[in-house]
From TrEMBL:
Catalysed transformations (reactions): succinate + ATP + CoA = succinyl-CoA + ADP + phosphate; (S)-malate + ATP + CoA = (S)-malyl-CoA + ADP + phosphate; GTP + succinate + CoA = succinyl-CoA + GDP + phosphate
Residues at which ATP binds: K46, E99, M102, E107
Residues the entry annotates as binding substrate: N264
GO cellular component: cytosol; succinate-CoA ligase complex
Designated name of the protein: Succinate--CoA ligase [ADP-forming] subunit beta
Annotated GO biological process: succinyl-CoA metabolic process; tricarboxylic acid cycle
Species lineage: Bacteria, Pseudomonadati, Pseudomonadota, Alphaproteobacteria, Hyphomicrobiales
Stretches assigned to the ATP-grasp fold succinyl-CoA synthetase-type domain: 3-203
Subunit and partners: Heterotetramer of two alpha and two beta subunits.
Keywords: ATP-binding, Ligase, Magnesium, Metal-binding, Nucleotide-binding, Plasmid, Tricarboxylic acid cycle
Essential cofactor(s): Mg(2+)
Native species: Sinorhizobium americanum
Cofactor note (record): Binds 1 Mg(2+) ion per subunit.
Length: 394
């Protein structure tokens, strides 16, 4: 789960990380009022959306008068900001964050991630901040500092100091940098974060170290024990298809194609999506129905897949180990009766109780295209989709 910049900054400030003074605004008037509360003569108006790279997309505006703040806020509020991370549909700006502007001496990149290879929290830092880390990694791979934390002892002060020295931070700021790094680490662990990124972390002309931007995302499996984080969720920033599915306990990722997928197992789901592509189609989603899927859960999955109005064919692919094909078949029939499936349906059942499952489908009298192998299922799904869309066009 992602949160907004202002929320991440608020969390980090509890861990003694310096942030610019700022305030939230929902209207241009409020934005100007925030600036007057903050004081000074230069401010930054920042669109709060769940995406980075807002600067290049017009979502960050440096202002030096009331008039400019009102104009910037007026242009951003209610607009859809398209960054290279949002996709073409963009993200709606409904909150702004107004901050005192900082005089920047240098910009640093700082990230904390869970590194799957070492199974540890990894700190990634670079003295060339401000840009996307991917670009830095490509242009100057040697400039990137990486360190992992031993989970037995946690992050140590010496590690933080080593990173700070590696970044070429002035002696006078080493203490501040160490506090910042240790604070990030504690916040990461205390809140069950999956990612924490400060880009840029800036050295100001006044000689302070300030988080100018902040991004955090959290492990959804831990949200039950982090109610304060859970309530920061902003569903308006999420793909509505994914919100619908996750609210119902389904593991779903929305994609851009037209063939809806209901599959058991993440690996089989990936393989099926590949097979659909090889057959000439495009998957509309990833959906792992999980082991032991009851007829209710199958019907629920149909609802989630059909929630996406671009779906023009559904492919159910079950390789049943823990699952039972007869249960899945009952779920399919239940969905056809209760949900109504207005598009072609291809079903492939294999594994535990598959004869029983196939019999249930055959005897249902419903219009179901059956397949025995994965390749056959993908071919039939793409063929069904082609004739369905041809029929719609005619
Ligand atoms: P992002 O584009 O979504 O990553 O948004 P950021 O908050 O990182 O802002 C993008 C860029 O705007 C930063 O890298 C800075 O160069 C610039 N910027 C943001 N805030 C300030 C500020 O207070 N003063 C100055 N001079 N530049 C700023
Ligand atoms: Mn940034």
């Amino acid at each position: 789960m992602d949160i907004h910049e202002y929320q991440a900054k608020e969390l980090l400030s509890r861990y003694h990380i310096h942030i610019p003074r700022g305030g939230l605004a929902y209207s241009p008037e409020q934005a100007a009022y925030r600036a007057s509360e903050i004081g000074g003569d230069r401010w930054v108006v920042k669109a709060q959306i769940h995406s980075g790279a807002r600067g290049k997309a017009g979502g960050i505006k440096l202002c030096s008068s009331d008039h400019e703040i009102v104009a910037a806020a007026d242009a951003m509020l209610g607009a859809k900001l398209v960054t290279h991370q949002t996709g073409a549909q963009g993200k709606l700006v409904s909150r702004l964050y107004v901050e005192e502007a900082m005089d920047i001496e240098r910009e640093i990149y700082l990230g904390f991630v869970l590194d799957r290879k070492s199974e540890r929290i990894m700190i990634v830092a670079s003295s060339s901040g401000g840009m996307e880390i991917e670009e830095i990694a490509e242009a100057e791979p040697d400039s990137i500092i990486r360190a992992t934390v031993d989970p037995g002892v946690g992050m140590q002060d010496f590690q933080a100091r080593e990173i700070a020295f590696g970044l070429g931070i002035d002696n006078a700021l080493i203490g501040r940098a160490t506090q910042t790094l240790m604070g990030c680490y504690r916040a990461f662990v205390d809140y069950d974060a999956a990612m924490l990124e400060i880009n840029p972390l800036v050295v100001t002309r006044r000689g302070d170290l300030v988080a100018l931007d902040a991004k955090m995302s959290f492990d959804e499996n831990a949200l039950f024990r982090r109610p304060h984080i859970a309530e920061m969720r902003d569903k308006s920033q999420e793909d509505p298809r994914e919100t619908y599915a996750s609210d119902r306990g389904l593991s779903y990722v929305g994609l851009d194609g037209n063939i809806g997928c209901i599959i058991n197992g993440a690996g089989l789901a990936m393989a099926t999506m590949d097979m659909i592509k090889i057959a000439g189609g495009e998957p509309a989603n990833f959906l792992d129905i999980g082991g032991g899927a009851s007829p209710d859960r199958v019907a629920k999955s149909f609802r989630a897949v059909l929630h996406d109005k671009n779906v023009e064919t559904i492919l159910v692919n079950i390789f049943a180990g823990i699952n039972r094909c007869d249960w899945v078949a009952e779920g399919v029939i239940k969905a056809l009766k209760e949900v109504g499936v207005p598009v072609p349906l291809v079903v492939r059942l294999s594994g535990t109780n598959m004869e029983e499952g196939r019999r249930i489908l055959a005897e249902s009298g419903e219009n179901i295209i059956v397949a025995e192998t994965l390749a056959e299922a993908a071919d039939k799904a793409v063929a069904a989709w082609r004739s369905f869309t041809a029929g719609k066009a005619a």
